[in-house]
Structures are given as structure tokens and as C-alpha cells.
Amino acid sequence: MHFIRLANAAQMALPILFLVHCSTSQKKASLPAELVESTFRYTANDTDNCAGSQGICLSSDAVTRHLPAGAVSGKVSIDQNVVTNADYQKCVADLHCEKNAYSAKLPKALAADSAPALGLNFEAAMRYCAWAGRRMPTVAELKAGLTDPAFARTDYREWSNDWALSPGASCTQKDRNLCEPANPMGICSGVFPCNASLKLKQTVAPQSAEVTPLAHTTKDKLAFRCASDFAPSTAAPPWMLKSPPAPLADPAPLSASERALLHNLEATDTLNKPICKEKFTSPAHCKDPVTYFTPNESQNYQFAPYIRNLGGGYAGVAADANYSYIAAARSRFVWLFDFDVNINALHRIIRAMVLESPTVPEFLQKFEKKNNKSALEILEKYYKDRDDLDFIQQVYRNNFASLSKHYKASAAPDKKQGEFGWLRFADNYRYIRLLYTQDRITIVPGDMLKDKSMRSIGKSARALGVPIRVYYPSNAEEFWNYTYNDSNYKKNILSLPFDEASITFRSVHEYPWHPTYRKGFKGFWHYVVHGAYNYQKRLLLPHYDYMDYFKMHRVVSKTRADFSTIEIPSAIPKGILEQDR
After folding, report:
1. Omega prior to 116 cis, within 30 of 0
2. Best label site of 69, 111, 172, 340, fewest CB within 10 Å?
3. Residue 178 has what pLDDT?
4. 172 versus 26: which is more confidently predicted?
5. 463 vs 77, more confident
6. Are residues 207 and 4 in contact, defined by beta-carbon separation less than 8 angstroms?
7. Which of 478, 476, 459 shows the shortest CA–CA distance to 468?
8. Nearest to 514 by CA among 471, 566, 567, 557
9. Residue 190: which region, alpha, beta or left (left: phi > 0; alpha: psi -120 to 50)?
10. Where is the Sulfatase-modifying factor enzyme-like domain (predicted)?
11. What is the rounded distance in angstroms from the CA atom of residue 542 to the CA atom of residue 190?
């Protein structure tokens, strides 16, 4: 990473306008052009316009002239001033930033609220910018800023989001693309840490624009400011917590053409992945031998405020937790998919039992042993024309007891969960039953790492004119590199019609996501809510190839150590929620 020497007294860091143009380079062309062009079909506010920015608007040309040949930047907004002690203390008070221990060693004048926040290592600076809804600027952006009269200089070098070779190190062939970057976000697209080479260090740049490599742990007298290329701002709090969407009326029945577009997907994946030798793992090349018929994300009610009444389309994997999310979001069109045939059979079982059960108690009875015979007859009634009827019935026989226990527990009152849960509240169950009655839920085989089902879901949603507002991958994304199998997963995500209001949410293992600076939390899962539209923009950059690379952009909940948000807009375009209501 880098810093820059800038001149004279520190001032308060002004907030910036996030410009939607994520800096990209010619490397983006590795993704199909038609996919990139269609990704942002539902954009209502994607613009290069810097008007109204309280920071400094850097033109594409101003930044590009400082980049390696072949790299092209979009417009970027950079803070006019460096971050001050007062600014940083707000992040500390919000429990997202660690206390700056170095400040106690500074002279009184440099410890003043209006003085630059000095002595923070790169990770602390990066964490602050994420909390503020921004990111660290690159050397090219800082150099471009130096040419603007409004850019407030200081006497201190500043952190930058770039890497350089350590002194005396040589660039191996393996790392040549990192040592000679051609993308405007810096080596590894600004991903921290850049694990491609231990020889790489973060860097700083003095006012003369000379680049100086330093370890990211350096606690020297270094200042920093933030920048952004996202619009609207992703500063906390997220838009839906400030202005929750209004409740949605029930949808009208589908037309015949809508039903065909929803259910008749262009193509679906063949589910032929071999079974893994070890349990409880699901790498890219094989399937976990264990089927998770019941969810184990016990704190998933934390997702509810972020998806409530989003409407639109829903796409998700795994078992019945989906129905709680669908009910909270009041989704209009639903695509349930999974690469485990047992889960697909489970959803067909749930569908049949829901359609035959006007109330939750009646649904629960369908899984009691005394009702096995009638339950199997229900499955035959609904699926007698399917080749896999026997398999669906066998899944029921093998699992009705554990499912009964799980569904009864899910229906029990729980003060912690509020009005969350598809079986806990009668109106949530009623809504799921309405969707099944109106044939608004489709169940399809789908492997995230293949190239048919998810892209067909995207085409189906586009044909229906509905954005995917909620996408739930469970914890699958942490098991593999996004570039696996010709980057199919990355392309699949880019094929989904997200808009600024869209959300993806997931669970990840506690390590490394629980914050090390917030001691004492021992929960197994960490829960993450991600702005889906901005997720796509990051995926258009090279090197965003692992789920953990997004950790650098997360903001940890003030009240919980097991919950983070990533780049959720602080505002959405007016009227966007009404487009599909």
C-alpha cells in the first residue's frame, strides 16, 4: 500500500460522494462483454457525475495519467482533507475501530481533535474508511489529488492502497502480473492482504510522488484520507434501517406467460458431482456426503431488518430457512436451487404439505409418524407424473422424524426473533402458502459452479422484468476460489439482475470473520449482509477471487461481534422499490 507526503495543517476530513463507476481496467475484458454490459440493466443511478461531491472529483484523465500503460480509471471522489483524531474517535466510539494507542505518545498539538490521526497501521486506516463507507485511495488517485488546488496538503506521508516490491526483491515470473499491474485499483485490485507474494509490501508516496515501500504494520507518523467510486454512499447506516420499505400488498395471480417464464428455465445444471470422502466439507470438486435438511444458523434472524419488504425476486440455496427470508422480504418470484438432490426433494415435500395445510398446526401434523401414510399419498397426488416420485417419498420416510422436531421448534415462540420465521407467525406461513398456491415458487437443480441454472434464473428474472432483490448462498461461497471452472460462479453472480436495493446475505465461519479487536465472542457463524449491486462491481475487478477478500470492506455491528455489513448503500434512487411492487 502507499502513502503520500502532503503539506500543512490538518483539517476535518469531509464526507465524499460515492461515484458508481468502479475503477476498472482492460483486464475486465476476460469476462464476456455481453455479460458485463447486461449486468447493470436495473441501474437507476449509475453515473460518472461528480456534481455535489463534498470531496474532490478526480476526472478519469487526471487519475489515468498516473497509471501504468493500459489501465484506465473512472471518475473518483477523494476526501479534501485527511482523517482527524476527532473523526477516528467516532469510529472507535462505534466499536468498529481500535483505540489509537500511538496518540498518547504524540505532542499535545498532534493529539488535538483537529490534528491528523497519526500512528495508525494500514489495517486500522482501512477499517476506518470501510466504516465511513469509503476505501483507501491509490497512489495514482493521491497524485491526481495533489494537482487540485482544493486538495488539503499536510506535512505527513499518507497511506495508499497499493503494493510494491520490498527493497532488493526481484519479481518472479509467477508474480509478474502483480509487479507490473495494469489495473487502476493497484496490485491485486487493492485487495488486502495481497497473498500472491510475501515479497510485496504496502507503500507510501511523498509529495514528490516518489513511492516508498513500508510494512503494513508500520506505526510511523503517517496520515490517511479516504476515496470512493461507488454511488450512492455506503456510509452507515444502510438505507433500509433509516427508511424501512413500506409493507407490501399480496401479489395478484400470475398470468400464463409469467408462469411459463418463471418455471420454464432455458437450461439447468446436471447434478453429477462426486461425493467427498470427508464429512462437513464441500470443496469445488465434490459434494459433502451430509445433507443439511435442517438449518444450523441459529442467529439468522439478524438478517430480517435488511431484507424486510424488499419485494422483487428471490434466489437461494439450502433448506427451509429460505421460507423465513422469503416471508420477511415478501418476495414476488422465487427461484430455489441446490446441487444436493435431497434438498430439491425436500422443497417438493414442503410444497405439497404446505398446499395441503391451510394452517401451521396442520402442516406440522403432516410430519407426525401416525400421518406417514396420508403424507405419502399427498406426495403421490402432487408428483405422480414425476420420474423421481419414489425418491421424494423415500426422502420423506428417512427424515420425517427429524423434520418434525425441527419444524415444531421453528414454530415455537421466541422473543429474540421478533416476527421472523415462516412457521412462527401465521401471516408468514400464509404468505408462503399464497406463493405456492399462485405457483410463484420454482424448484430447480442448480450448481453454483456450473454455467446453466443461475444464468437461466437471471434470464428468467429479466424476462419477467423483476430484479433479484434477495440472494442467499448460505455459506457455500467460502469453500472455493471464484475463478474455479472458468470463473463460473463470478459469471453467475454477474448474470443476476441486481439493483441498488438488492441484498445478498450469507454465513461464514467465525475465523477469520469475528473481529480480533472485539474479544470474547465464541459463536460458530459470522453473519454477513452485502450490498448485492456493489458485490457485482467488485467482481468486475481482477483478483476479487475469494469470499475473504471482501472482509476488508466490512463494518462490524456495534452491538454484536458476529454480524457485519459490506457496502450497503446509505440511500437508493427514489422510486426504485415501486418498479416491481
Report:
1. no
2. 69
3. 59
4. 172
5. 463
6. yes
7. 459
8. 557
9. left
10. 77-155
11. 10
Q: pLDDT by residue (tens digit) across 35-73?
A: 554 454 433 344 445 534 568 989 889 998 988 777 788
d(CA 231, CA 20): 4
CA 440 remoteness from chain centre = 26
pLDDT-based confidence at residue 527 (cuts at 50, 70, 90): very high
**Cα–Cα dist 564/12, whole Å:** 27
Classify 388 in phi/psi space as left (phi over 0), alpha (psi -120 to 50) or beta.
alpha
Length of the chain measured in residues: 581
What are φ and ψ of residue 61, in 5° steps?
-65, -40
In sequence order, what DSSP letters do the residues of 371-424 get, joined into one string? GHHHHHHHHHHHHTTSTTHHHHHHHHHHHHHHHHHHHHHHHS--GGGTT--TTT
How far is residue 402 from each of residues 378, 382, 406, measured CA to CA in Å? 19, 23, 6
Identify the burial level of 354 via C-beta atoms within 10 angstroms of its C-beta, where 0-12 means exposed, 13-18 middle and 19 or more buried. Answer: buried
Is the pLDDT reported for residue 549 higher than 70?
A: yes
Q: Cα 27 from chain centroid?
A: 22
Q: What CA–CA distances, in Å, run from 511 to 346, 477, 529?
A: 31, 15, 17
157-165, strands of its sheet edge to edge: 212-214, 200-205, 157-165, 222-223
Cα 388 to Cα 156: distance, rounded to the nearest angstrom: 69
- Cell match 507518523: residue? 221
Residue 521: Cβ within 10 Å count: 12
Burial 439-465 (b: 16+ CB within 10 A, else e): ebbbbbbbbbbbbbbbbbbbbbbbebe
Contact (CB, 8 A) for 337 and 454: yes
What residues does 196 pair with on adjacent strands?
none
pLDDT per position as a tens digit, 195-210:
655 456 776 655 555 6
Task: List the Cα angle 61/81/136 in 5-degree steps.
Answer: 65
- The larger pLDDT score, comparing residue 468 to residue 509, is at 468
Sequence-separated (6 or more) residues with CB below 8 Å from residue 33: none
Residue 29 has pLDDT above 50, yes or no: no
Q: What is the Cα–Cα distance from 367 to 346, expressed in whole angstroms? A: 12
